[in-house]
Design goal:
Polyamine Oxidase, Chain A, domain 2, Guanine Nucleotide Dissociation Inhibitor, domain 1, about 20% strand, about 500 residues, FAD/NAD(P)-binding domain, 5-stranded parallel sheet, 3 domains, binds flavin-adenine dinucleotide
Length: about 500
């Protein structure tokens, strides 16, 4: 099946979302498309689907976005708490300054100012002792964090030197050296670089477990080192912590494309040989598609693509190898203010990170990543453990937990284990694959772990691959924004990019 309608090439990717003149041009392109072919159908309105929709609509391609739920955001979304009617997030979501694609998407959706950025990252040990990492204004990476590391009292002097040695090794290897580590675990790499159990517990765990949703030693070295290279060692803004100052759902108030359909669950994909003809929703509506971007998680992909079609396309062969790892999020309400810091990484569990959710510090959100052993723990037991942990950390033995809501997302993300990349599918179809079916989603091959940034990259990559398959769009720039640049000092100390 052909998806090559005659369309004028559009030079800028920034059209409907910002530049009025370009919006008109995009509209013309859309009109021409509509007279010739069916629209592109995007299945799934999580961040991957939203990003793909924004990129395509911006380029003038008509899009229909079908989302099974009544709102956008998918796993990075919110729900209404029945008792209070308040919007609560599925779980606190954190971004970093190096998440350039996510930041770009927020800007296009007009919500860039809803992210509050923190230059100081707080740590608390089990006795409530406070430490922090901060940058010196004006100093480029990696020098910007140097003074804070020298004074980082959580680590002994020899532990700080040991971390400096490991960071130096990560810089020297550059991105190209990192890519050679595909088959080894971060545990193996840390052992080779003489990082002690205490350093792993105090320094690496708070960063790696939350960033990768995997145990530090079990995670692939490639992804763990990526976190440090991209967030700490490249650009002074990379490590900054971004927290939405509103419920996640409010970030998606602006529709990513004109035609968004909610409560529209796709139940069937209709094929003709090696191409997709249409999709059918569970209510029976048939929607013709010039091309489809599947922006669901990989479980839904395996359900929706019948085994005989999966057999035609190598992208589907590794999906069953992706292991899901749970995350626990705990909404906690105390009878008094207990937390004045905006956030804190906790050195000792069970909760690993805390986020203050109200100005007074009575409403706290706690997170446990790589939460495999919490899946079957009764929530009242979790709540009592968390209450005790916070009473101890904040030295407030009388503070009482008056309400809680615990959510364990069993299929939060896939495990970024060593060697996992071979099982992650590309967004574009292979030569003999299903020719007009594109994949987006945090599990696809983005070079990033399963994060909001990875999801947005996948959406932009899928949209870019689709545009590249259309002759008339050959000159449209890839929607993927650049990574943070190497600062001069970082470049001098680093290996090849
Ligand atoms: C508890 C938790 C905490 C996390 N914390 C962080 C964090 O702090 N920072 C971070 O960067 N990342 C975090 N993540 C990861 C991040 O949320 C995900 O990587 C990202 O949101 C995935 O987006 P996606 O679009 O790929 O998939 P999804 O968000 O899963 O979106 C898929 C969408 O497809 C829809 N869908 C499925 N089937 C159909 C169908 N048949 N028809 C129509 N629609 C369908 C779904 O309803 C959903 O909306 C966290 C994830 C979880 C679960």
């Amino acid at each position: 099946m052909s998806i090559t309608p005659e369309l004028p090439s559009i030079k800028s990717a920034d059209t409907v979302f910002g530049v009025p003149g370009m919006a008109a041009q995009a509209k013309t392109a859309g009109d021409r498309w509509q007279s010739r072919a069916a629209p592109v159908v995007i299945i799934g309105g999580g961040l991957a689907g939203i990003a793909a929709a924004v990129a395509l609509e911006t380029a003038g391609v008509p899009v229909i976005l079908l989302e099974a739920r009544r709102d956008l955001g998918g796993r990075a979304g919110s729900f209404q708490e029945p008792q209070s009617q308040a919007l609560l997030d599925n779980c606190q979501h954190v971004l970093l300054g190096c998440c350039t694609n996510l930041i770009d998407l927020y800007r296009r959706l007009g919500v860039g100012d809803k992210i509050r950025w923190y230059k100081r990252v707080h740590y608390l040990d089990d006795k409530g002792r406070h430490y922090s990492l901060w940058s010196v204004p004006g100093l480029p990476a990696p020098l910007h964090l140097g003074p804070a590391m020298v004074l980082f009292g959580l680590l002994t002097l020899s532990e700080r030197l040991s971390v400096a040695h490991a960071m130096r090794a990560m810089m020297r290897m550059g991105r190209s050296g990192r890519s050679l580590l595909e088959g080894i675990t971060f545990g193996q790499w840390l052992a080779r670089h003489h990082q002690s159990a205490a350093v792993i517990h105090k320094f690496y765990d708070p960063v790696v477990i939350s960033a990768l949703n995997e145990d530090t030693r079990r995670a692939g070295a490639l992804y763990a080192i990526e976190v440090f290279q991209e967030a700490m060692l490249r650009h002074h803004r990379g490590y900054m912590l971004g927290l939405p100052d509103c419920p996640l759902q409010m970030l998606y108030a602006r529709k990513p494309c004109r035609d968004v359909r909610f409560a529209a669950r796709v139940g069937e994909i209709i094929f003709d040989g090696r191409s997709v003809q249409a999709v059918r929703t569970t209510t029976g509506e048939r929607i013709a598609a010039a091309a489809v971007i599947m922006a669901t998680n990989h479980h839904a992909v395996q359900k929706l693509i019948p085994p005989d079609r999966r057999g035609m396309d190598a992208r589907f062969s590794g999906l069953s190898k992706l292991e899901s790892v749970p995350i626990l999020g705990a909404h906690l309400w105390f009878d008094r203010p207990i937390m004045h810091l905006p956030h804190a990484a906790l050195i000792d569990g069970p909760l690993q990170w805390l986020f203050r959710k109200d100005a007074r510090g009575t409403n706290i959100h706690g997170v446990i990543s790589a939460a495999r052993e919490w899946v079957d723990t009764p929530h009242d037991h979790c709540a009592s453990l968390f209450e005790h942990q916070l009473q101890k950390i904040f030295r407030m033995p009388d503070a009482r937990l008056v309400k809680y809501r615990i959510i364990v997302e069993k299929r939060a993300t896939f495990s970024p284990a060593a060697g996992i990349d071979q099982f992650r599918p590309a967004q574009a179809p292979p030569a003999a694959g299903i020719e007009n079916l594109f994949l987006a989603g945090d599990y696809t091959r983005t070079g990033w772990p399963a994060t909001m940034e990875g999801a947005v990259r996948s959406g932009y990559l899928a949209a870019g691959a689709l545009l590249a398959s259309l002759p008339n769009f050959a000159n449209v720039p890839m929607p993927l924004p650049a990574d943070l640049p190497f600062e001069f000092s970082a470049r001098c100390l680093s290996g090849p990019d």
